[in-house]
Each structure stands twice: as C-alpha cells, then as structure tokens.
Amino acid sequence: MSTEKRLIVLASRNQDKVREMRQLVAGLPFTVASSLDYPGLPDIIEDGTTALGNATRKALVTAAYTGEIAVADDTSFQIRTLGGLPDIFASRFAGPDASYADNVRMALDVTRGVPAEDCDARFETSMVWIDPRPLAGLNPAVGTPAAYRWLHNPFARTINLAPTEDEDGFWNTLSDRRQDWQHFQAQARNLPVAWGGDRDRVLATLDDLVAPFLGGGRPSDAPPEAMRMPDTRLWAASGPDDQRSPVTRVCPSGLPAEAPGRATNGLMWLEMSSEGRLLGHLTREPVGSAGFGYDPIFVPEGLDLSLAELEPDEKNAISHRGRAMRRLLAAVQRVYGSA
User: Would you list the domain boundaries of the chain?
Assistant: First the structure.
C-alpha cells in the first residue's frame, strides 16, 4: 500500500463516528476529518429511496466539495410485518420532528397485535467511499466484499441550468425520481392481509412520509440552499479509461464556485460501497438505557439482551454499521494496496 497519506472526510458531523474511523484506519496511510472541518460544505437533500442511494449522495457531494476521499453511511430499520417499514424513514417514522422515543413508541404501537414470533426486524447500513482523485493503477476488481463502479466527474464542466428553478424538471426527464417513489410507495403498501398490526395507521403514515417526494421537486422541509443530486447513474463509466461523455453535460447546481475540489478533482472517480445487516426481533417494551434510536426495542439474533443493554464494545462488534465499515476497509486495503 502506498505510504502517501490521503485524507478521508466523513460526511458527518458526529464526532463519535470520526473517532471510530480514526481507530479503524490506524496503521493505514489515511488521516480523518469530518464535515465540521468544511463549513462551506452544502447540506445535501437525502431523497433516495434506499439507504445506499442516500449514502451515495452524501459521499459524492462531500468528495466534490473537498477534493478528498469521502465516506458516508446511511441506515434503515426494517420490520418484516410492516412490509419493511420504517425503512429509510426510521428517523422520522412518527413525524418530521420525532424524537427517538416517539419513533420507538410508534413502532411498538403499530405492532402491538402482532404475534411475538412474527416481529422480526433488521438494521441495514450502507457505506460509500468516493475517491475524486484515484491514483493510477488502482484495481477495484480485487475489492470484494465491496461493490465498485467508476463515475465521470459530475462537476467537470461548469455548465448549469438557468434559471435553476427549472432544474428538477430537467433531471426528471433523464431519470424520473417520481417513478422511483411511486414504486417505493406501491411496494411498501403491499402489507400482509392478516398481520395483526394497525394497518390503517401504517398506510396513512407511509403516505404522509412519501408525499413530499412524489411531486419530483425539492422536499418542502429542505433548506433553500441545500444541494440536490440527480440519479448518479447518469455519470456511470465503464472503467477508468472511459472517454465517452456522460449522458448530460449539465452540472447539478449548488456546488459553490470556491469549493476546494473544483481545482483538484480528476475526470474519473472511484466509488466503492458495502452493506452491513443485523438481524433480530422487536421487544414489547423498551429495555436498556444505552444506545439510541430503536436500540431499546431490538434484540439481535442469538442474544437475550437489547442493543441498549449491551456495552459499547459489545454493540460495535456486531453492529450493522461496524460490519459495513469493516467490509469497506477490507476492500480499501486490497485496492489501495495494489497501487
């Protein structure tokens, strides 16, 4: 592996994640920073229908702005008898301003009549690494267990739509995210007929959560300056030497002109991604005081304690996020070690 130190910028302001990443890359030729170190980094609208889509958006904009390797993650929580909900809406299942306790109570309320043996659930984390300046000779083919792809730099040109209020309509002519959300809604509404939960409340909640995205424009609660990425498949390339132009020559608006990455980023970017899952089941009431989110009502498979009852080291050893990160870093060592 090259001895040149590369900087990794976490697309997060969470200092615990920064600390964890620094521990995980100890001994590797990387240093770690976070979004907090780049005050001008735009907020990113997370309007993907999957955790992987949202993590990709965050990593791509972070890499574009900083000019450094970006790492982002996103987590969904899926309850089988709810058809996989709350899924990507885990943090706002009980509403846009919901607290952890609100979301936990919502999950328990709508599964109250479900037999205990049918209360299976899982966490799923997607982790994305984007290098906007990949070194010659990188060989991602040896990077399993992470997936990889090459991307044309979406911001290599400075052509933007004017006026920008027409932009969402333009991107939807190339890749219509409204259809993605219609499909997501249709799939999520396909709940079992006799499942024992509060079906009507779940469907009403789903419709409320999806409604802001069905119009194809910016979500109503998004900050006006927040950056919105189109479907990143528009810039997919066949390999690092792909000289074909991407589908569009128009750059997404919102990346500041003074972004450090504009002067340093290459024409071809390397993306690697991994997933980590943790299977388990729901409890009937919150148990334990550690952890956050749905931890107090989730018991991992093979254990008798909720995630909120485990010591931090015990939780990190089995966590969905930890599994995704370890897989990604295993790929990083193979890929960057071959350069």
Answer: 6-337
> Would you state the structure tokens that stand for residue 28, as one six-digit string?
């590797």
Contact 40, 231 (CB under 8 A): no
Catalytic residue among 16, 43, 47, 74: 74
Give per-residue pLDDT as tens, 177-205. Answer: 889 999 999 998 887 755 777 888 999 99
CB 110: neighbour CB atoms within 10 A?
22
Q: Are 12 and 40 in contact (CB under 8 A)?
A: no
d(CA 200, CA 9): 43
Is residue 109 annotated as a catalytic residue, yes or no?
A: no
Which is it for the CA torsion 138, 144, 150, 153, positive or negative? Answer: negative
The CATH class given to the 6-337 domain equals alpha beta
Q: What's the number of CA atoms in the CB half-sphere (13 Å) around residue 178? A: 13
**pLDDT tens digits along 280-291:** 999 999 999 887
Q: Rounded to whole angstroms, how far apart are CA atoms 283 and 287?
A: 8
Q: How far apart are CA 297 and CA 93, in angstroms?
A: 15
